[in-house]
Amino acid sequence: MTALTAVDVTVALDRVVVVQAVNAAVGSGGWLALIGPNGAGKSTLIRAMAGLVPYAGTIRLDMSSGSTPGSVGSPGSVGSVGSPGSAGASAGASVDARAMTARERARVLAYVPQEPVLPPDLTVAQYVLLGRTPHLGYLASPGRHDRERAAAAMDRLDVTRLARRRLARLSGGERQRAVLARALAGEPRVLLLDEPTSMLDVGHEQQVLELVDRLRTDTGLTVVSTLHNLTVAGQYADTLVLLDGGRVVAAGSPQAVLTKDLIESVYAARVNVVTGGDGRPVIAPRRG
Amino acid sequence: MRRHTALGAAAAFLAAAALAGAFAGAADLNPLATAAALLRLPSSLGPLDRAVLFQIRLPRVVLGALVGGLLALAGAGYQGVFRNPLVDSGMLGASAGAGLGATLAIVYLGASGTGAVPVAAFAGSLAGVAVAYATGAAAGRGAAAGGGTATLLLAGIAVGSFLIAVQTFVLQRSASDIQAVYSWLLGSLSAASWAQVTTIAPYAAVSSAVILLHGRHLDVLSVGDEEARALGLRPGLIRAVVVAASALAAASAVAVSGLIGFVGIVIPHVARRLAGPSYSGVLPLSLLLGAGFLVLADTVARTVLSPAELPIGVVTALVGAPAFVWVLRGTGDVGT
After folding, report:
1. What pLDDT was estimated at residue B330?
2. Which residue has the higher pLDDT, B108 or A24?
3. Lower Cβ count inside 10 Å, N or C end of chain A?
4. Cβ contact A111–B336 (<8 Å)
5. Taking residues B306-335, what's their average pLDDT?
6. By the CB < 8 Å criterion, does B276 face chain A?
7. Nearest CA of chain A to the CA of B228: how many Å?
8. Is residue A33 part of a domain?
9. Do B229 and A126 touch (CB under 8 A)?
């Protein structure tokens, strides 16, 4: 069952088309990586999925019953469109994201931008609790259940011991884990990550991606991420979509997309592609 | 300090300030007898002292508490909306609009000392904010994400400067009114009465309730518009609601007190130091601390040179500025 489907998605920013007729889909519990050179439209596409920029085309979300990611929904009942009022309640259906309110959508999708804003004086616990916002009515305040979900998210991301620390006092890796904990506190089905590791060294990059991968396999969370490191993208994602100039150039398994010819032509780069121990491609830049 | 401890301490501070305001003044009231009379217990206060207490001191204390609480709460609301610690309750043309409104009433209606001045100041303050907000929103449309709040603030500065220029022009042509306008601008609670209290009470109640209910939303806004939207909130709507409520709060305060600076910018910072950065704590704490602080400042203003009165704005700055520097001391960078 697909968790998120983008059909013919086109985005224009300031009247310039930056994403053009993109089709992409990611299965429930899968990991879709958007790759491509700078300016290819990766971040814009992921922001369209999060409902943050207007788009043409359709983005559909699986809303099958079951409140937690990974629970088995009734398969096959794709195609019915929920009305705004019923979008959250309709079971076993994929729903046009446009028919959902911002809050309904936020309960399904958690979005982590490339450079999240971390209010320096907020504690980790306060910050993670903000992730419960989509579940709170306009005038409601977080209750015991919300605090429990936030605490569970902190546990999972191993930041419980940092709960009372101010965000300004966190290291790069700790910041990224706090941000992920905030995203998970909302109990989303789909995690949208824009360059989750661009600020991290290779060790912390691996730790964060392993963590996300474990969340995916443990809880059935679906992940859509942009990733600039092609080898890393091939190691973690099961589906890659290669964008160039806003269009899909190639899509499929890492082996199918990460070929020497495609990378050299799209990135104007010189690379060698070898097969790693896990059978996935390793991209090595080459001089001369 | 934890939030509940801080709120309890602030409530005690307000009670102590109110009590001091009730028995200190030109007519010396016995503190114990005053406290007994306030609690409706048998008291040794004579009829004259009772009249001083209930018709002069008490309305002034209550009005001071309302004005201080409203100014601090409006300042905290604006600081949350604009994610900027340098914003205060007079921003967005609020003070300039009130000043122009009062000036026009004094110069053209000959209304100095009448009820028309507060009405004109109230209307001018709200109109100033409305014009600044509309201008800023129009200019910010189509601006890059995140440019919205900066555009609003800049529009507020432009509108404020324009209104002050108009006010100065009007005043230059009517030098005889300068004294009356100037004394209004400096701020004072000397005309306090129960009528003033009941006039602003409904506005105070509505605006405070609306601001206090948005603490959690202001916390979410602190992660930026884009992430707030991704969390399902509508930042533009929240900004409009909190700005409107803060403008109403500040306008109500300014209408009965004139321009009292300092409270709206400084008290929220003290609240933040005590209760942490979450607006669920900062907002109620600002209300209580602002109320207590202004009652105390007004008590100083009318007793220190008794029977003459100091302008309260002078006291808030003279007492408040060094206290604020002390609060900031060694605390590093100021964030919102």
Report:
1. 53
2. A24
3. C
4. no
5. 74
6. yes
7. 9
8. yes
9. no
Among A238-252, B20-34, B93-107, top mean pLDDT goes to A238-252
Rounded to a whole number of angstroms, the distance from the CA of B206 to the nearest CA of chain A is: 15
Q: Compare CB distances from A102 to B213, B232, B277 and report the shortest one's residue.
A: B232
Which tokens hold the place of B242? 């909190």
pLDDT at A77: 34
Query: For chain A, how many structural domains are there in total?
Result: 1
Residue ranges of domains in chain B, CATH in brackets: 3-22+53-328 (1.10.3470.10)
Q: At what angle do helices B235-257 and B147-172 cross, to 10 degrees?
A: 20
- Give tens-digit pLDDT for B208-242: 999 999 999 999 999 988 999 999 999 989 998 99
Residues B61-78 pLDDT 10s:
999 999 999 999 999 999
Nearest Cα to Cα of residue A109 among A27, A187, A43, A45: A187
- Residues (pLDDT < 70) of chain A are 65-92
CB within 8 Å: A102 and B233: yes
CA distance A46 to B156: 35
Q: Is B12's pLDDT higher than 50?
A: yes
User: What is the C-alpha separation between B54 and A260, in angstroms, rounded?
Assistant: 88
Q: Has residue B122 got a pLDDT over 50?
A: yes
Region B264-287 average pLDDT = 91
Query: Distance between CA atoms of A48 and B164, rounded to whole angstroms?
Result: 45
CB-closest option in A102, A119, A133 to B335: A119
Interface with A, mutate which of B231, B274, B283, B328 (most A CBs under 10 A): B231
Q: From CA A147, how far away is CA B241, in angstroms rounded?
A: 27
B335 in A contact zone (CB under 8 Å): yes
What is the rounded average pLDDT of the residues B37-52? 79
- Return the CATH number at A36: 3.40.50.300
Distance between A237 CA and the closest CA of chain B, angstroms:
24
> Which amino acid, residue A218?
D
Report the residue from B213, B335, B336 with minimal CB separation from A139. B213
The answer to whether residue B147 neighbours chain A at the CB level (below 8 Å) is no
Of B222, B229, B276, which has the smallest distance from its Cβ to A52's Cβ? B229
Q: Is there a domain that residue A242 lies in?
A: yes
Question: Could you write out the DSSP letters of every residue in B59-95?
Answer: HHHHHHHHHHHHHHHHHHHHHHHHT-TT--TTTTTHH
- Minimum Cα–Cα distance from A165: chain B residue: B276
Residue A44 inside a domain? The answer is yes
Query: Is the Cβ–Cβ distance between B300 and B22 less than 8 Å?
Result: no
Q: What is the mean pLDDT of chain B?
A: 85
